[in-house]
Target: Crp/Fnr family transcriptional regulator
Amino acid sequence: MTTTALLNYFEHVLPLTEEEKSIVAAAFQERTVKRRHFILQKGDVCKHHTFVVEGCFRMYLVDDKGKEHNLQFAIENWWITDIASFYAEEPSSLYIEALENATVLQLKKEDQIRFFDDNLTFNRIFRALTENALVNAHRRILQTISSTAEERYLDFLKRYPQFLQRLSNVQIASYLGVTPEFLSTIRKKRVGS
Model:
């Protein structure tokens, strides 16, 4: 199993004992996902926390008019999960799709609960993950309601330069809440200045 990347990730949050490393290796299931395949589709209950070992994913919503709205991207050493569906055990309104061939490690909810009950280290690690997700969600909401499209694009460039070579303009535009044509105009304006 490819747990080295995950163990390194955890070690950056809190050091693990050898026993804890063995628990991780036993609990997380490796899965390969082909490009354009899904690890979650609308109507399914999200049953896993997913850690990306290799590849790129997007989480998105399709509105009543059929338009896609990207909510999150995830690449190596990132997590992607529909938190609301996972914790409430309700059908998801989201899709999580592989944009590249990928390898992930997935943790079932019952294993996560056992982690919390049996080991304070994992409780603290997942609390830190949840806190970071909440901070990022707040930042995104505030930016959406108070920033111009150009400011959102500049912030995206600053925070996520690694995505520029891996995502299409259409994907980035959807994440920023603008049309691909408008994003192209912003990019041309920046090149010209």
Remarks:
- The domain at 4-117 is CATH 2.60.120.10 (Jelly Rolls).
- The mean pLDDT is 92.
